[in-house]
Design goal:
Elements (H helix, E strand, L loop, with lengths): L8 E6 L5 H12 L2 E4 L1 H13 L7 H9 L3 E6 L2 E6 L2 E2 L7 H10 L3 H14 L5 E5 L2 H5 L5 E6 L2 H14 L6 H17 L12 E4 L5 H22 L1
Parallel strand pairs: 1-6, 1-7, 2-6, 7-8
Antiparallel strand pairs: 3-4, 4-5
Helix pairs in contact: 1-9, 2-4, 4-8, 7-8
The chain binds cytidine-5'-diphosphate (CDP).
Length: about 230
């Protein structure tokens, strides 16, 4: 079925290692849309904080840091590349040391304000699939299609472990489990934009679905959303 002319905004939220980025990337490719992994931006801020040994609870130091940070995303062969002050940090932001601090950095309203403003600008022309924690609730509450991914913890641990193994990063399953649980807790309980399912989001449990099956479910939902929009035009 050809993709219609009507472009929509698709928000994919959920817990870590539930397959958000994999699904978002594949869906965007199939629809010829832009895929934005919003977590990469919070990871880039975290890398800067580590490199400059900034105390994230020092409001002035954080404000100064934010004014010195420029985050830019480029898209090469359907893959997102994250740039921090003109340096390609795509690999560095996936290192386990970032996982230790990223959720704490992401609780800070000053950080969220900057990131959300930039993310909203990327959606101006629609035709975008963005994944994260607050995309359907805060960044694009008007998104045409919202998906919320969940998955069993043991499966999330296994997936993240395999992902890191492939990159040659050594981490035990126990360390990964602890970090995922800690980040779930921090992400869901923060005051500013906590991780939660938007009321109008469709929940997908990815535990026993292959990436192809997840893509088919999401693609069918996207197609029917686009058709409905076109009928209303
Ligand atoms: O890849 P993984 O699902 O583990 O994480 P990520 O999507 O790269 O996001 C890393 C962290 O950034 C999350 O644990 C959140 O603390 C934060 N984040 C956020 O607060 N809001 C977003 N829209 C995306 C990520």
């Amino acid at each position: 079925m050809p993709t219609g002319h009507r472009k929509i905004i698709i928000a994919i939220d959920g817990y870590s290692a539930c397959g958000k980025s994999t699904l978002a990337r594949a869906l965007a490719k199939r629809l010829h849309y832009l895929h934005v992994d919003s977590g990469a931006m919070y990871r880039a801020v975290s890398l800067y904080v580590i490199q400059h040994q900034i105390d994230i609870h020092d409001t002035d130091a954080m404000a100064e840091a934010l004014s010195g940070i420029s985050i830019h995303l480029s898209f090469e062969n359907d893959a997102q590349v994250t740039w921090l002050n003109h340096e390609n940090v795509e690999e560095a932001i996936r290192e386990p040391r970032i996982n230790q601090v990223v959720s704490d950095v992401s609780t800070l309203s000053a950080v969220r304000k900057e990131m959300v403003a930039q993310q909203r600008r990327m959606g101006t022309d629609k035709g975008i699939v963005m994944d994260g924690r607050d995309i359907g609730t805060v960044v694009f509450p008007q998104a045409d299609l919202k998906l919320f991914l969940v998955s069993e913890l043991a499966i999330r641990v296994e997936r993240r472990w395999l992902e890191l193994q492939k990159k040659g990063i050594i981490s035990t399953k126990d360390e990964i489990r602890k970090n995922l649980l800690l980040r779930d807790e921090i992400d869901s309980s923060r005051d500013d934009s906590p991780l939660r399912k938007a009321e109008d989001a469709t929940e997908i449990d990815t535990s026993y679905l292959t990436p192809e099956e997840q893509l088919q479910i999401a693609y069918d939902l996207a197609r029917s959303t686009i058709s409905q929009k076109e009928l209303m035009d």
